[in-house]
Specification:
Radius of gyration: 21 Å
Bound molecules: pyridoxal-5'-phosphate
Order of helices and strands: HEHHEHEHEEHEEHEEEHHHEEHEEEH
CATH superfamily of the largest domain: Type I PLP-dependent aspartate aminotransferase-like (Major domain)
Distance between the termini: 61 Å
CATH architecture of the largest domain: 3-Layer(aba) Sandwich
Oligomer: single chain
CATH topology of the largest domain: Aspartate Aminotransferase, domain 2
């Protein structure tokens, strides 16, 4: 018996465990202090009412013989796939309902998608990076190379003609940097992928946070993307589905590599390893994707957007360089006075009782940077910002 030794190559990421430990120790030593957490990526607002009603109705269906549902289709129920296609149409992008796969979230699909690609492909990720792309490909033994995102390029790496890669992960608006790619930037990646026979795995989990109408909300808004890209999206952050679990993946029918159709390969993979998303959850997903659902979730998104605006405004007032805040729920800031990420973490915890996420947990280009999220509640966000401003303007 042999274990998968690629797991030995996973870099132990102690980021969130280390954050929790430092906060715990601080609170034990200072029980009277009110610590505000703006580090987590989880949402705080409850599910919209329309999702709850649809889920209840879905559960009720399961209680009756006439409307009971067993195993769902691997790729999702047709009406939910159609609801996703209609949602794309609402912002001017055409995708076929038969190109949509309903998933249990973007994490699983971004991590699993490379199952259909050979292990000797080279994977390119941007750094800083959402760790799932790196860890899942490390587990499969693939070579991973990095494109640097930094202050010089506004945390938006561009393709380098001298670099050879087969699979490229892009995430826009980005976690952790909040940077959102422009049409021209995304087009440069699309052209590069088409020219180099590569595939772009595009994570648009935060697309609903885009307010600037000139920015693409989908890679399929970009000419040429249908022959090189797969898109992953999620209802986690937009509709509060982090615990409910539902997302979707879009694969254009014409996407082929190595003489094979990607959509058919992914269907084959899902049919083998995935048994679909439950009926009540798919009903809830279709409900939030409906026109009325979109009105309801807009309230939640606006709430987080306003939190992001409040944090970004404070950074502007303090003269601190940052990306995100606009078109993104994340604010990625340069630690003041040349502090390191962990140094700033401790400084903020001890002097403002505010918790954020040290940037170096997301890759080497995160050193000296720090992530704040807008997913907290309003009163906490306002209080955290007041304390940060008081501390840093001294
Ligand atoms: N992709 C990115 C970039 C994320 O930041 C997250 C969650 O934090 C996910 C995917 C996971 O989404 P889901 O909850 O749909 O699995």
């Amino acid at each position: 018996m042999k274990i998968n030794r690629n797991y030995d190559n996973l870099v132990q990421n102690y980021l969130f465990a280390e954050i929790a430990k430092r906060v715990r120790e601080y609170q034990a030593a200072n029980p009277d202090k009110d610590v505000i957490k703006l580090g987590i990526g989880d949402v705080t607002l409850p599910l919209p009412q329309i999702a709850v009603e649809a889920m209840k109705k879905g559960a009720d269906d399961l209680s009756k013989k006439e409307s009971f549902k067993g195993y769902p289709d691997y790729e999702g129920y047709d009406f939910v796939r159609q609801a996703v296609a209609d949602y794309y149409k609402s912002f001017g992008v055409t995708v076929g309902a038969d190109e949509v796969f309903i998933s249990d979230g973007a994490k699983s699909d971004t991590g699993n998608f490379c199952d259909i690609f050979s292990e000797d492909n080279v994977v390119l990720v941007t750094d800083p990076v959402y760790p799932v792309y790196v860890d899942s490909n490390t587990m499969a033994g693939r070579e991973i190379i990095y494109a640097d995102c930094n202050k010089e390029n506004g945390f938006a790496a561009m393709p380098d003609e001298s670099v050879k890669a087969d699979i490229i992960y892009l995430c826009s608006p980005n976690n952790p940097t909040g940077a959102a790619l422009t049409y021209e930037q995304l087009k440069a990646w699309v052209d590069w992928a088409n020219k180099n026979d590569a595939v772009i795995l595009y994570d648009s989990a935060y697309e609903a946070f885009i307010t600037d109408e000139t920015l693409p909300r989908s890679i399929f808004a970009v000419e040429g993307a249908r022959t090189c890209a797969v898109e992953f999206c999620s209802l986690s952050k937009t509709a509060g589905f982090t615990g409910t679990r539902c997302g979707y993946t879009v694969i254009p029918k014409e996407l082929e590599r190595d003489g094979h159709n990607i959509l058919k390969f992914w269907y084959r993979r899902q049919a083998t390893k995935f048994n679909g998303v439950s009926w009540p959850v798919q009903c809830a997903a279709a409900a939030v994707l409906s026109e009325e659902g979109q009105c309801q979730i807009k309230e939640n998104i606006s709430y987080y957007q306003e939190n992001a605006r409040i944090i970004a405004e404070a950074m502007d007032e303090l003269g601190i360089y940052y990306t995100g805040g606009k078109n993104s729920p994340y604010i990625w800031l340069e630690c003041p006075c040349g502090m390191g990420s962990w140094e700033f973490f401790d400084y903020l915890l001890e002097n403002a009782n505010v918790v954020g996420t040290p940037g170096e947990g997301f890759g080497k280009n995160g050193a000296g940077y720090f992530r704040l999220t807008s997913f907290g509640d309003r009163a906490n966000t306002l209080e955290a910002v007041r304390r940060i401003k008081e501390l840093l303007s001294k």
